[in-house]
Amino acid sequence: MGDTKNQKHRERYIIAALIIAGIAFVLLSRPGLQYSGMKLYFPKRDSQTLAVERRAIAPIGSLEEKATEVVHELLLGPISRNMQPIVHSDIVLERVVSGNNAIFLDFSSEDIASFSPEYSAFKRAIDESLRATIPGSYRVYLYINSIPSR
Q1: What's the rounded Cα separation, in Å, for the pair 79 and 89?
Q2: pTM of the model
């Protein structure tokens, strides 16, 4: 009788050890838990290089809805003090359209002259933020006042 009791205890320990080993294997063999929030890129305060800022907001919905959420967060600006906004002039996202492996973003701005010097950093920040947050193979096209921009 004592042997069957010890046998049952050993079986329970073996089963528990196998479950723990299985969980550890799954967690360690994966490349890492995928970050489900946004990865937003902003220019550093002292240079034009971009740095990532993570936000715990997970974009959901269609490709257009996800892209809209990412761009709205970018336009709000960084939370970190060592980064600067991607644009210092008033700019508004008017519409987002996706199709044929592309995302088309149409912005409107009253003051194009003050926006022009910041455009390259603005475009890089949007492109890198969308690619880091929304997986997939697509091109990003920007329009300013419904005019294609390069």
Answers
A1: 18
A2: 0.73
